Amino acid sequence: MKTRHFLKETDFTYEEISELFAMAADFKRHRNHGTPPSLDKQSWGMLFFKNSTRTRISFDVGIAELGGHSLFLDKNSMQISRGESVADTAKVVSRYLHGMVIRAYDHSLLEEFAEEGSIPIVNALTDFLHPCQIYTDAFTIAEKLGESDLASLVGKKLVFMGDCDSNMANSWILGGAHMGMDIVLSGPPEYQPGEQILELMKNTEVRGSFEYVEDPVAAVAGADVLYTDVWVSMGDEAEAEVRKQKLAPYQVNLDLLNKAKPGALFMHCLPAHPGEEVTQEVLDTPNSIIFDQAENRLHVQKAILAVLGINKAQKHS
Ligand code: CP
Ligand code: NVA
Questions:
Q1: What is the pLDDT of residue 311?
Q2: What was the pLDDT predicted at 309?
Q3: Cα(316) to centroid of ligand 2, in Å?
Q4: 314 has a pLDDT exceeding 70
Q5: How many Cβ atoms sit within 10 Å of the Cβ of residue 22?
Q6: Whole-prediction pTM value?
Q7: Which protein residue's CA is at the shortest distance from atom 6 of ligand 2?
Q8: Pairing with 311, which of 6, 130, 223, 265 sits 20 to 30 Å away (CA)?
Q9: Domains in the chain and their CATH numbers?
Q10: Does the beta carbon of 269 sit less than 6 angstroms from any atom of ligand 1?
């Protein structure tokens, strides 16, 4: 059986995502009674080239709850930081580990790791995509709509406000459209969806749609969900001042939220910068489900790991 990876939102079919959501809901409901040990006796590495709070902790806890063992691999103490190739690193760690969770700048590092190694690779965020976040967020919306049922997302309008040329925007385009949602992206023309994602979308069949709308007020009309992310992503720090100036008209404040559908949900992957991309008032409004999102990272990633871990176990049986 071919080793499966989770590098992008379309790596699982629509039907598989539906099953993942059911599994995540089950893990969440029964967390206090234990989880089937899908990663029993498995060791998973976690290699992070960027900072993380939610992703790192939720994977660490999730691997333990599935009966596995995780190793946090500090990039600075790995030979990869002294020039050892990605290919050699991938081949070597594949001899020890059952899977790797990697957060990196360049998406192609994960693709190369997956290609050269022989264990499942999970994308814990790259400059291009953040698929664990999008699966979790979609699950959280479905949960708020009722039964954690993927089908309930079909035709729902999610507006992503701010830096539309970012990993989160790209992931909503690919993941949201794959799951049948209608994704609208609103930000300054300088930060509209970039070539890499547009090229990928040309070659990807999806159930939903995506569209760029420059005017934030026009964009939010009829929105079921209003989503934003930081204006300065990890790696963009040198452009911080220019970005803050250009993106200021796209701040999510109560005035803008009130122009969406009544009762529209507010979401943010976090960390947030109150006063920049979102006001504290919006973060505190009852419409805000930011901490449910954060919690659900654990349940949804456990489901992703369980599927990849079971596949890995079968490979060796
Ligand atoms: N949302 C998210 O991925 O958070 P961390 O950067 O803290 O992992
Ligand atoms: N766009 C943000 C997401 C953080 C979870 C970043 O890449 O820094």
A1: 65
A2: 86
A3: 36
A4: no
A5: 15
A6: 0.97
A7: 233
A8: 130
A9: 9-129+295-315 (3.40.50.1370), 133-290 (3.40.50.1370)
A10: yes
